[in-house]
Amino acid sequence: MTVHNFYMFDRYGQLLFYAEWNRLRQSGITREEEAKLMYGMLFSIKSFVSRISPLDSSPGLREGFHCYRTSKYALHYLETPTGLKLVLNTDTAAVNVHELLQQIYSQVYVEYVVKNPLCNLSEPIKSDLFEAQLDLCVKQSHVFTSKPT
Questions:
Q1: Cα–Cα distance between 136 and 134 in angstroms, integer?
Q2: pTM confidence score
Q3: Strand pairing partners for 34?
Q4: I need a labelling partner for 49 at 20 to 30 A (CA). Which of 55, 77, 78, 93 fits?
Q5: Where are the domains of the chain?
């Protein structure tokens, strides 16, 4: 399976971090423009999902949208209670990616950004240690290492 790229946004849509592993095709626009389009798409999908849901959900609940798949890739999404948004694009064969996103949040972001007094949570992440641990976490995951059957 293949992990293509990763985005992390704050609750206001600011891109906090971006990484890529096996991205074969570039979008042809700047990283900032791509991030704005990604965040706008996430906002629209979340709004659409909440409006068509047959069940009434409380306004504070951030459940509902976790993943979508196309014929070329799958987008996996996790939003934390604080509004942090994690997005991982993979190939279509990837499974249990939500667990990887939760691991990235709890074992990488919380440990190497939240608990780091030198990191400002409202600014883009500029930590080599965070970047290295994220890379290690993704590369050691079943999503990155397993082969399709």
A1: 5
A2: 0.85
A3: none
A4: 93
A5: 3-140
